[in-house]
Amino acid sequence: MEAVLELNGLTKIYANRRGVENITLQVQRGDIYGFFGPNGAGKTTVMKIITGLCRADRGQVRLFGQDAAADFVKAMSRVGVLIETADAYDYMSGYKNLELAARFYPQLPRKRIDEVLELVGLAAFKHEKVSQYSLGMKQRLGVAAAILSEPELLILDEPTNGLDIEGMVEMRELIARLAREQHITFFLSSHLITEMEQLCSRIGILYNGRLIREDFVADIVRGANPTTLENYFMEQVREERRAEVHA
Ligand SMILES: Nc1ncnc2c1ncn2[C@@H]1O[C@H](COP(=O)(O)OP(=O)(O)OP(=O)(O)O)[C@@H](O)[C@H]1O
């Protein structure tokens, strides 16, 4: 097994004393790793640190076995990122938007734009203006931009946030397909536990800025004491609260 992403003791405390503390985890090649936590748990903060949008107070990010800080540009060249909502120019077509994004990758063959549009199911709508797209289509265009450079690891912050049921299902199917057919490893966050149950191979539970548990989803839902991810999460939170009371 190869760890494509490792976080070692990652800590970031904002001036208001919120943030994340001592996050240590590993994402193995082939994982769809769900970084789960309620609103404000610290998921975005961790993702921003990994992708260089925010600086950690302490700790280390390793990408593909190397300290990401040593050669950040090289490490990130193998990573695709979609943090918060996808930003596209509404008055341009999906295709034009991807052409703009492709300028960051001068080596990219032009046919790659059509390839990614096909992969995310937008080929038929590529010449429509993004203003005509549904939110789900805009999110999938964001994924298309993130996979332009054929990344091995895709980091997605709340990829289904704000989507209707159809949009959520389409996004879930897209992620599963990219994992299966393009062999992309995923590190994605969500506060929707049923979504994680349906999609992820492993989950890490973030609560009040700390990683309180990591498990294989199959072990939780089909293991010795099968339960739903929702019950499992509530159990962990209760334990955490009991520990806080006794501390
Ligand atoms: N720039 C900032 N300055 C101060 N506090 C911040 C800042 N960014 C985030 N926080 C706080 O840090 C904590 C973690 O926020 P973060 O956005 O990482 O959580 P999250 O799990 O992604 O939540 P959500 O699902 O709501 O996006 C929250 O309490 C938040 O209010």
Automatic annotation (TrEMBL):
Keyword vocabulary terms for this entry: ATP-binding, Nucleotide-binding, Transport
Domain ABC transporter: 5-233
Domain of life, source organism: Bacteria
InterPro entries per the UniProt record, alphabetical: AAA+_ATPase (IPR003593), ABC_transporter-like_ATP-bd (IPR003439), ABC_transporter-like_CS (IPR017871), P-loop_NTPase (IPR027417)
GO MF annotations, alphabetized: ATP binding; ATP hydrolysis activity
Matches recorded under PROSITE patterns: ABC_TRANSPORTER_1, ABC_TRANSPORTER_2
Pfam families: ABC_tran
SUPFAM superfamilies: P-loop containing nucleoside triphosphate hydrolases
UniProt family annotation: Belongs to the ABC transporter superfamily.
UniProt-recorded name of the protein: ABC-2 type transport system ATP-binding protein
